[in-house]
C-alpha cells in the first residue's frame, strides 16, 4: 500500500503564503501522477493542481498564477507553493497519488489525511 503524509498547512492572513508538502511512501513501483485537492465546508472536493512524472502540470482556474505545484521524483515528494492567498482558499487540502504497487497491476488512487489551510481576511 501507499501512505501519503501531508504537512505545511496552517493559518495565514489574506495575501500571505504557505507551502504544502506531500511525501509518498510504501511499496511503490511507480507514481504516475500526484495532485492536490481541496474541500471547503459544505462543498465538493475539487482539484487544485496536478503534476505528472514528466513534470506536466495543470491548475484550477481559481489558483492559476498564485499556486505552483512541483515534484521531486527521487523523493516521491510533491509540493504546493501557495501565494497571494485568499479567504476562499480556506479548505482541507488533500494529497492524491496514482501509483502502481506490487499487489496490483494497474495504477490506483491513494489519498492523504488532509491538512487544514485557513486564510483570514
Kindly report how far apart the N and C termini lie.
40 Å
Topology, number of strands: 11
The SS-based structural class is mainly beta
- Which H/E pattern describes the elements? EEEEEEEEEEE
Strand content: over 45%
What is the number of helical segments per DSSP (H or I, 4+ residues)?
0
Describe the structure.
Helix content is 0%, strand content 59%. The strands form 2 sheets. Strands 2, 4, 5, 6, 9, 10 and 11 form a 7-stranded mixed β-sheet that branches. It has strands at residues 2-7, 10-13, 18-26, 30-39, 46-52, 57-59, 67-72, 77-82, 91-100, 108-111, 115-120. It has no helices and 11 strands. It is elongated and about 45 Å long.
Layout: helices, strands, pairs:
Blueprint: E1 2-7, E2 10-13, E3 18-26, E4 30-39, E5 46-52, E6 57-59, E7 67-72, E8 77-82, E9 91-100, E10 108-111, E11 115-120
Parallel strand pairs: 2-11
Antiparallel strand pairs: 1-3, 3-8, 4-5, 4-9, 5-6, 7-8, 9-10, 9-11
Amino acid at each position: 500500500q501507499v501512505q501519503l503524509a501531508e504537512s505545511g498547512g496552517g493559518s495565514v492572513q489574506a495575501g500571505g503564503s504557505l507551502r504544502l508538502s506531500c511525501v509518498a511512501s510504501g511499496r511503490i513501483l511507480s507514481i504516475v501522477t500526484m495532485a492536490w485537492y481541496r474541500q471547503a465546508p459544505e462543498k465538493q472536493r475539487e482539484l487544485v493542481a496536478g503534476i505528472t512524472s514528466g513534470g506536466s502540470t495543470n491548475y484550477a482556474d481559481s489558483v492559476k498564477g498564485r499556486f505552483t505545484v512541483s515534484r521531486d521524483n527521487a523523493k516521491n515528494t510533491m509540493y504546493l507553493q501557495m501565494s497571494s492567498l485568499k479567504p476562499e482558499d480556506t479548505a482541507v487540502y488533500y494529497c492524491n497519488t496514482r501509483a502502481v504497487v506490487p499487489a496490483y497491476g494497474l495504477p490506483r488512487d491513494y489519498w492523504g489525511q488532509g491538512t487544514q489551510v485557513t486564510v483570514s481576511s
